[in-house]
Predict the structure.
Amino acid sequence: MTVAIRATDLVKSYTPGSRALDGVSLEVASGEVLVVMGPSGSGKSTLIRTFNGLEKLDGGELDVLGVRLDAAHEERPVREIRRRVGMVFQQFNLFPHLSILDNITLAPVKVQKRPKAQAEQRAIELLDQMGIREQAHKFPAQLSGGQQQRVAIARALALDPEVMLFDEPTSALDPERVKEVLDAMRQLARDGMTMVVVTHELGFAREVADRVMFMDQGQVVETSDPASFFTNAREERSRRFLSQMV
Amino acid sequence: MRRRSLLLQVGVAALLLALLALLVNNLAVNLLRTGLGLDFGWLGRPSGFALAESALPYSPSDSYLWALTIGWLNSLKVIAAGLVLATLLGVAAGAARSSSNRLLRSLAGGYVAVIRQVPLLLQLLFWYFVAFLGLPETPIGGLIQLSNQGISMLGMPLSVEFCAVLTGLTVFTGASIAEIVRGGVNAVPRGQWEAFRSLGLSEGLGLRRIVLPQALPAILPALTSQYLNLAKNSTLAIAVGYADLYAVSDTTITQTGRAIEGFLLLLISFLLLNLLISGGMAGINATVLGRMRRSR
Ligand SMILES: Nc1ncnc2c1ncn2[C@@H]1O[C@H](COP(=O)(O)OP(=O)(O)OP(=O)(O)O)[C@@H](O)[C@H]1O
Ligand SMILES: [Mg+2]
């Protein structure tokens, strides 16, 4: 088993005296799907945002795909990790002034220096895979939320990442749009992608996750396989959280 | 709704016309009283004064009209160069103020703070007397030649006066543009920064391709008024003896005593210049907004 992400004792503090991450350690194996759950403000977003250097660490050490990151937060390793790790946000964050195709090809062309035609061909393939090929020449605002989020996934996949990070990818969607995004993610997991997914979608976690990690107040409360987590969580705090979810 | 706004426009136009009529009437009365009457015949007479700087051949035996034209060209030269350089400086400084590099951020912040505290006239005098007149004779790499006679860049000689006015206008307007750019950049949602960063784009590329294009609709209107300010402020060139339109008009009026005609010409010239700038910016604005609207 090769390790994709190894976190050791991560500490992050936005304001002195309070810690958004308070000594988090974990491992994500290559090809594994880790679902992160926990109450609002427990540090889930902060945690996965440290994985691609969007948040600077205040302590601890990260190894992402063999690249080391710590509180020094040097530019070069951060950029390398970002090229190899894709991220999908709750609010999609598509570039509103660029067409769908340009949203997807911008980074492959500018960062990976791929020929434009080749990048566009790959973009069309990805849109096809997401079931929205006919949207290629529209602009983000002309698409539904579910379609926008699938474009965001395609945009991240266009860099051929080895790891994908998802931060509540369906929380901003109308209920009837959630399934189309989860289906795309499910397919990605089936294809063997290493994924860290922050989500409140119990069904997705139960069905797709290899392990579920439960966080509270910046700490990892427990990590279990989904079957035991949902039927028989070890910790009182996890059980209380789950009872409020359903 | 449409009808009311049309009515309003007609009303405003009528008011303006009335005001204009009043002014013209005053002018006529004044002309009658002094017994001068409007007369532009003097424009053809030789000016008799020399100009330190002319883009086209000029000598004191040339007409006043030609002297004023040379002044107009000198104004145009310093304004056009100032617009370009102030924009470059302002965008760079404005972007630096949102940079993650602390040194860059405080340098840009200091620049804006200092420049906005000091009157432009003092800045022009500073650049003229302290910076440029104090220059030692130094050729830099053969391309740029510095001396207190001026700067020669790629064989093109630039006078000390021109350099002082250009630097003054650029640095002064650049600071205001920096603030405008910073405001526009800050109005772009954080998520856009996170998105381009997570795709491995560099800060500079992200700023150019993602952030600035989205900030433009907020930046452009404010930029237009800074451009107009720069054009108007260029008349301060007279303080360091740069032969711009205002300086040449001033000399012309003193020599001919034709104050009213001289001012009319000056007014029309600046009106033309500012209409040119406003028109250009309106065109750019429409293109940018059109492109944004298509993406809606
Ligand atoms: N940019 C920030 N500045 C200051 N405090 C922050 C910032 N981002 C997060 N925090 C704080 O850090 C803690 C963890 O926040 P985080 O966003 O990681 O939680 P979360 O588990 O993702 O919550 P949610 O489910 O609401 O998204 C919270 O107390 C939050 O208020
Ligand atoms: Mg969150």
Summary: Chain B is about 70% helix and 5% strand. Residues A 14, 20, 38, 40-46 surround adenosine-5'-triphosphate (ligand 1) (CB under 6 Å).
